[in-house]
Here is the input.
Amino acid sequence: MSTSRTVDRAFETALYDTADDALDTAASLLAADSAADAELAARGAEFVAAAWRRGWQPADLVRVVRRELGPEHVRSVAALIRAQAPHDRPRGPRWAAQLDALPDGAAPPRTDRFSHAGAVLELYRLLLRLPALEPLVAGEKAGGGREGRPESRALARIRALLAKAEATGYPQEAEALSAKAQELMARHSVDEALLSAHAPSPDAPGACRIGVDPPYEQAKAVLLDAVADANHCRAVWNEPLGFSTVVGFEADLEAVELLYTSLLVQAEAAMTKAEAAQRAGGRGRTKTFRQSFLAAYAHRAGTRLRAAAEAATADSGSAADVDLLPVLASREVAVTERLERMFPETTTTRLRGVSDAAGWTEGTRAADHARVGRHRPLA
Here is the structure.
């Protein structure tokens, strides 16, 4: 029997049947054919290319494999993505950044062919069943971002400020650094809006996906929604697949990614500290405390983010002696229209598990420490 036929039989046995004995039977077939590895890799590249056609991106594949399977499968899918990359068309800087951020695809020494074949089949079974996702860029030009555009000085400065806010052990310093970062984000957004409004071909809104990882996904999704709203974007959470799709203009999408990641790091550090104090006092309801903490943090941080963004936007309009309202309103309409085209049907959900008063109080206090109101620049 040819190697290709062996792989076909293994796939017929394992990929369309979820029973464990089917997987074992198929793994035995592949383990018995020492020439099957190259054919398996070629089939894997086909699965990855099919995922791209269904709207998936490199970070999406790694995320779903990490959620559903194990480290060996993550290494395998990363290796498949790298092998497929030279055969893909250019897809923009956001896609390239995802390729650069892939985990190490080098597999450790294998113990036996049967176990390796079983892991490969588990991965392919998952890839085969992936649903179609909404294209992130109009015209199905997946990847987002603008070709060849380097990071602006403003974004580089914002990134540096947030890195310092995450690293410092002093809440007031983190507060001032985060505040300055949000102020710069708002001003950068206004600058981009004005440039686009006077360009021969104004920008159109795009979209990106941001992972919302367990535990406490609901509260984290609320925090991401608050950050998106404060930065002229809209977010739609996909709970089963563990991400939110954020729709907005490119400069605002970059700001949302940076600020959400930073605030989540700061929130989790503050939550760990507050939880330790609660345990020292004899309380042990960790899960409800953390859920309530993060929900309160998201609520409070969102309020302060919006206030800071509105103040910075108003000041930018005054300084430039222009009426920003028509420009920003037209961009908001464009974002809403793009969101409705991508997601014609959405539902709302109630935040569950927010029942710990101490967690809510501590989360609100932590958000106050990370507040984003206007401050004088640090000396």
User: Anything to note?
Assistant: Residues 139-148, 371-379 have pLDDT under 50 and may be disordered. The radius of gyration is 24 Å.
